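Quick one, tokens below. Sequence please?
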């Protein structure tokens, strides 16, 4: 018997084995169609706990996106399955559960992984990042093998002229194309900024509004733009991708690789490290932040809601210093964790040396005022960061502290920007701008997408230092420490028991809510997930399930997650 014959027989056997196990068994095995999953919820006291719940079906828009995903062959290269091994879970997130595929017929597990696994991609990036990615993946990652999907955009052949609207603003010329995209008679404006090459992204949000071309720092000086407009197919595809993994709730807030906490990681200036940092920057950061670090990279036009940070003025939002400049540790924390809710991804899988090197490049090459070419002003040399501020151990969570935080919310007038319920719809929200003249949207705190981190210490840090370059002030001098802690707990409570994707309240009984709010309840892993409706004191018939101990009980599951 030849080796060729054995190989042929084995190949045929494994082909049919895969066909049966992945193609037929999921239709007949009951456990493969259960909607039961475990998900992370935030409690009223700011804790994150696992709970048994049910996966939710796709919305019509998400289902449209799934159809597009299938039609365009995305599943050829991307898998949707996190295997139960250490490397998998540290890279992607929690192991997938059968309930996550309850509404997937056919399933899209995938095996090739030419591209990244997508089972945990939901809310890892902002919608804007995905839009730029579909236009040209290599704008964001030069090494990407993914093809551009520009056919999903509406791309008129003829450039459109930029004209004066007669009221001091610049807008687009009214043509058959632009009148199909905008409503020039509307009282609502949409501010859009072309990239340096004259590409102008038009989101679905712009339909029914009048366009205003905003270039406060001469981001584009041309007289015409080339339009790339979002379509319904593209909107649906992004919605589908954002859904992936979100049946597991706020799991990312417990994801160890994104919980780096470091006070400092100082490295002496090194020309060799700066040179390496430039290489890293050009491969990983240039697409958004631009060649010169001015926040006007080729992908920036897609980020109409939150522009990429400009390093040129050395203004950084996230730090633990009294002075404006952050330490290397602050920058390392931001790069590693990413900035939730924005196009800035987490770079925890980038080698540590690469992250440290790009910090050197940002500090000593990009964060330099070159308005006077003969005397450039290097901020990190002329005014180095001061010592980090000390953040002590937070007080124990309690309802009185949350109630006190609600009072501080009123006294500090947080509602003026963030709204009475924290949804970012305060009376001053519409007119806010950042230091570069772009509009700033106050955070919707009910989403739980906290830019600087999801722990109470992260919120406290933001309350203490503010966010440089934005209207968010520091409360270090105006509020005592105990009030800042109380306010931080209250901010966390605003996203309690909310679906992180839809932002809708989870359906959960008062009894289960009270049980989850119990600080002594251990539910820090899927194996210890709380079971709604079960008696936490009950003895188990099956080991390793629920409520911090082995229990059985009725699965009166909460919706969402």
């Amino acid at each position: 018997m030849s080796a060729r014959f054995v190989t042929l027989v084995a190949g045929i056997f494994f082909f049919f084995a895969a066909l049966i196990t992945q193609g037929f068994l999921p239709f007949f095995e009951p456990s493969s169609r259960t909607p039961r999953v475990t998900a992370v919820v935030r409690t009223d006291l700011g804790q994150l706990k696992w709970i048994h719940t049910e996966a939710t079906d796709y919305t019509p828009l998400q289902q449209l996106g799934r159809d597009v995903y299938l039609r365009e062959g995305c599943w050829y290269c991307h898998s949707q399955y996190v295997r139960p091994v250490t490397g998998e879970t540290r890279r992607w997130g929690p192991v997938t559960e059968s309930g996550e595929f309850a509404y997937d017929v056919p399933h899209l597990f995938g095996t090739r992984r030419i591209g990244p696994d997508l089972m945990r991609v939901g809310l890892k990036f902002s919608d804007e990042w995905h839009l730029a990615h579909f236009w040209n993946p290599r704008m964001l990652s030069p090494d990407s093998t993914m093809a551009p999907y520009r056919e999903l955009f509406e791309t008129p052949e003829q450039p459109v002229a930029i004209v004066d609207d007669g009221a001091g603003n610049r807008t687009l010329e009214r043509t058959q194309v632009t009148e199909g995209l905008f409503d020039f008679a509307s009282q609502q404006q949409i501010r859009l900024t072309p990239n340096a090459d004259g590409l102008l992204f038009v989101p679905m949000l712009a339909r029914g509004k009048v366009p205003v071309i905003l270039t406060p720092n001469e981001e584009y000086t041309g007289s015409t733009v080339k339009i790339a407009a979002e379509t319904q197919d593209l909107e649906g595809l992004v919605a589908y991708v954002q859904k992936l993994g979100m049946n597991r709730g706020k799991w990312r807030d417990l994801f160890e690789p994104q919980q780096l906490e470091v006070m400092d990681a100082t490295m002496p200036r090194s020309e060799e490290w700066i040179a390496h940092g430039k290489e890293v920057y050009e491969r990983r950061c240039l697409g958004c932040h631009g060649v010169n670090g001015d926040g006007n990279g080729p992908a920036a036009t897609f980020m109409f809601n939150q522009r990429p940070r400009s390093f040129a003025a050395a203004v950084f939002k996230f730090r633990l210093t009294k002075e404006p400049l952050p330490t290397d540790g602050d920058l390392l924390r931001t790069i590693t964790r990413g900035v939730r809710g924005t196009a800035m991804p987490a770079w925890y899988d980038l080698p540590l040396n690469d992250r440290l090197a790009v910090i050197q490049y940002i500090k000593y090459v990009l964060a330099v005022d070159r308005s006077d070419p003969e005397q450039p002003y290097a901020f990190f040399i002329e005014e180095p960061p001061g010592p980090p501020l000390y953040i002590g151990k937070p007080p124990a969570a309690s309802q009185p502290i949350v109630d006190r935080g609600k009072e501080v919310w009123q006294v500090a007038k947080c509602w003026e920007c963030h709204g009475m319920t924290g949804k970012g719809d305060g009376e001053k929200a519409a007119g806010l701008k950042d230091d570069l003249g772009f509009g700033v949207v106050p955070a919707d705190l009910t989403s739980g997408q906290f830019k600087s981190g999801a722990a109470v210490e992260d919120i406290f840090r933001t309350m203490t230092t503010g966010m440089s370059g934005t209207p968010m002030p520091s409360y270090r001098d105006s509020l005592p420490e105990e009030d800042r802690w109380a306010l931080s707990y209250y901010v966390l409570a605003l996203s309690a028991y909310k679906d992180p994707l839809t932002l809708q309240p989870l359906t959960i009984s008062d009894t289960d809510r009270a049980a989850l709010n119990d600080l002594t309840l251990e539910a820090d892993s899927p194996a210890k997930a709380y079971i709604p409706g079960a008696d936490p004191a009950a003895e188990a018939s099956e080991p390793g399930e629920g409520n911090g101990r082995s229990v059985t009980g009725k699965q009166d599951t909460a919706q969402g997650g």
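Residues 3-28 form the longest helix (26 residues). Residues 538-544, 549-561 have pLDDT under 50 and may be disordered.
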